[in-house]
Phosphoribosylpyrophosphate synthetase
Amino acid sequence: MVQYNDMLQALRDLRQRGYNMDFSLLPDCVYCASKSLRLKPEDFTVAETHRFESLDSSPDNNPVIYAISSNDGKNKGVLVDAYGTYAEEMTFEMAKRLNTDNF
């Protein structure tokens, strides 16, 4: 997997590789507002995960970029999340799909 120096570099490269949609995290799915698309955990795969250290080194402020692909191959995008922010609001299936305990 590619190692990036910063988030902007990662986002730029992922966009060039076709991850053009912007997903947001809901408790039970990822959502792309521009396409009105909801992907439940069983509908997508996390192709790559990139975590970045914050300046204050607080584990709760470390952003994570997920490169997400729908299982049908028609939709690819990124989810940018602050590690730990939504952990209590996610369903077990979403947490498992995003593999949040491995950070």
Q: What stands out?
A: Helices lie at 7-16, 92-98.
